[in-house]
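Sequence in, structure out. Go.
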Amino acid sequence: MSFKWVCFDWRNTLVDGRKALRILNENNSVQNILRSSGFSFAEEKYAAALARTELEKTTKYYGDIERHRKGFYFTRLCFHLGKKITWENAEQMDELFLQKYVAVLELLPGALETLEFLKTRGTKLAIISNAREARFVRQMSHLNLASFFDVVVTSFEVGGEKSSLKPFEVFLEKANVDSPVAAGECIMVGDRPDEDGYAKKLGFYTVLFNPFSEIIDEPDLVVRSHGELLGFFKEVFPDVNVPV
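Output:
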């Protein structure tokens, strides 16, 4: 196997998004943001509205880039709470939530070592994420990771989520600017079989990282930690200065 690029998903592949959200939930961060904006509600009603909002993300709005628009989540949450809200207010709430999220966001164990190893091998690195660029850049800057990546592709900016294949296609266009590269020379690492796994349809070598749901199409490799992932990369990108 010969590869030129390694592409990563972001949340729950390089950063521990689940832990960050768990901390915010334990601190009632969303409820506090709503109440600080003048809304009152019973906890039971909030729980029901939250459940409906989360369900929408994976059903009605699955694959729709609008769900990444700033303020969208709070607009839908307030709708289910029966509260009127302007888009401007929703964006303000979104900003408050992002500040809290970034403050508790951490790299997954071993993620930095994985990135540093790949850089020592001269490997080109990319991020391909279902996200909004401004939101993602804030997180990456907070963790001092911007210098690692040669290309960043976010679904909101390219007009399609990974399930549409558009972000992968845009990545290939960007990667080919400097020198020719085929999909088969690229590795896609991510935790979502229904998103990252789709790269295989274009010919990427796919690595599912600790997948959170049932695997749809068989990936080329499944790993459960960055320790396993780093072991794979050490085989794929050997030190050319070490005599065989």
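Check: Residues 18-104 form one domain. The CA atoms of residues 11 and 17 lie 5 Å apart.
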